Amino acid sequence: MIIRKAELLITAAKKEQYPITVVPEIAFSGKSNVGKSSMINAMLNRKKLARTSGSPGKTQTINFYNINDQFNFVDLPGYGYAKVSKQKKDKWGEMLEIYLKGRNQLKEIVLLIDIRHEPGINDQQMYEWIKSYNFTGYVIATKADKLSRSQQIKCISVIKKCLDIKDSSLILPFSATSKAGVEDVWGLFENILGLEAE
Ligand code: GTP
Ligand code: MG
Question: Taking the complete model, does pTM exceed 0.90, yes or no?
Fold first, then answer.
């Protein structure tokens, strides 16, 4: 994929702020700190387009990015951040549900899981939720640079088991740091978006 243009369209806290576009969209979900914003930057080869942070809870709004005027990436706020109040958690669920329900151009919502961590109850629920909306259920195993190749294989099988994934092609290792997996994920995204490889 040749990135000719990558820009933040809007950081949306409510539905009225979602950009009115017809281009297809891919959304990134997952626990806080798993690397959603970093993945967006790595895919687009931009260091600081999406704001990242060492402490969880950085992205709190739904952030829409326009790429090449062809499609959007959507950075979702992370879940499972312990310090967040019950009220904020409810708001998060509500915000996400409104987005998932009403967004016709949303082609896929991918779930990011830290490759080193066994998925937790929140991850399992998110995965079930994604599938209940009839999305395929692709999982990106992030921070793969932290493990050796053989450790990666072991950890991927743990994630598969925990999320009850039978089809190995649904889970892809990725690293925003080393850029491992960028090409494979673009291949997947081009398919999802119905775009020709460039
Ligand atoms: P929230 O916005 O809080 O939901 O987090 P997020 O999922 O957007 O995570 P973010 O991209 O901000 O990354 C969190 C931390 O993980 C940062 O310190 C990143 O530098 C680090 N990180 C992200 N991706 C990778 C990776 O592939 N490898 C390594 N080693 N660190 C990573
Ligand atoms: Mg983020």
Answer: yes
